[in-house]
Amino acid sequence: MTPSVRILGIETSCDETAAAVVENGRILRSNVVASQEDLHARYGGIVPELASRQHIRLILPVIDEALRRAGVGWADLSAIAVTYGPGLVGSLLVGVNVAKALAFAKGLPLVGINHLEGHVYANWIEVDGSPEPQLPLLCLIVSGAHSDLTLMLDHGKFRRIGRTRDDAAGEAFDKVARLLGLGFPGGPAIQRAAEMGNPEAYPLPRAEIREGWDFSFSGLKTATLRLVERLRGSGPLTEQQVADIAASFQEAVVDMLVAKTVGAARAFQVPQVALAGGVAANRRLRERLRAECPVPVIYPPPSLCTDNGAMIAAAGYFRFRAGERADLDLDVVSNLKLE
Ligand code: KG4
Ligand code: ZN
Asked: Of 13, 48, 103, 222, which is the most exposed, with the fewest CB atoms less than 10 Å away?
């Protein structure tokens, strides 16, 4: 029997302080996420300075807890994987510097991971005996900062075929939630409100980009803003109106994401489609894509869609296995691309 490869994954690119231990790229031994949601909620969005300070406070206890829950010590680890971009510079710096210090102190190899690649690898974590994803994959990566259609041709080999031309899907969810007074983060709040609403209550526009696989969400966002202004002209929104707007908005976002993803799955004849990123937790998106896509659609459980250390450890395993190592001069790259 070959010995297990255990990777400690560290993720601090945005507002979650996270660490996890994953075995052989697929077996989740522990997954600790300290959310800063409450800290940023009162500002209606992430305050970068507060985020990095909170990472500094939480990162070591979070790592200790990840090792404790996994029941492993430093000597049981094979390597440390850490997100070095894209993300907020001050946030990334905390994870990268802690990872470098620990790698040096404990004599462990270090692997630098692209956050978006991590989101894709969340699909590798085994859940109830789920099989390993088949390559090539078409990945719809939808988060607070990205909306990309990317072909994953092999491990570590990506080709972006589409992107958002303006807002990211998650950003649109967050802005509309704020507009409706639903709080932060917006995605889960819109999803919850939409459950009581009628998705056909208000006709909202879908961006028509005929050629290629790009997205655009700013027209929809502006139209939703105008609708809310118009309705507020005759008094505060009722709970039913909020639910109907949330449902109509969510349906429009899902329509656009599903249309391009299904079109690209056909055009590139991929055997499988994978969802990744925080917005991949959206129930309506998951249902509709599964129903309408000509090939099987896979997605991680909601807790592995939003930022976490397990996805970084999983991605780290495949890079570690390929012989990749980062030096102690590893630096953060806030606009790192996945290609
Ligand atoms: O991947 P992620 O945790 O962080 C980034 O890398 O950006 O994604 C966060 C985004 C937020 O915009 C949040 O509102 C959105 O994912 N999100 C959702 C849902 N859960 C999180 N959007 C729609 N439906 C959800 N259930
Ligand atoms: Zn993310």
From this structure: 222
Separation of 230 CA from ligand 2 center, angstroms? 34
> Which neighbouring-strand residues pair with 113?
83
**Is residue 302 reached through a cis peptide bond, with omega within 30 degrees of 0 on the bond before it?**
no
**In DSSP terms, which residues pair with 35 in a beta bridge?**
16
Q: Which ligand gives the minimal distance to the CA of 304?
A: 1
- In this prediction the pTM is 0.97
**Distance (Å) of CA 13 to CA 101, 187, 309:** 18, 19, 11
Would you say 81 and 322 are in contact if contact means Cβ atoms under 8 Å apart? no
Report whether 52 contacts 40 (CB < 8 A). Answer: no
Measure 227 CA to ligand 2 centroid, in angstroms: 30
Query: Which residues have C-beta atoms less than 6 Å from ligand 1?
Result: 14, 143-145, 170, 173-174, 185-188, 191, 277-279, 281-282, 306-307
**What is the 8-class DSSP label of residue 279?**
G
* Cβ proximity of 221 and 172 under 8 Å: yes
pLDDT reading at 196 higher than 90: yes
Q: What is the pLDDT of residues 153-180, one digit of tens each?
A: 999 999 999 999 999 999 999 999 999 9
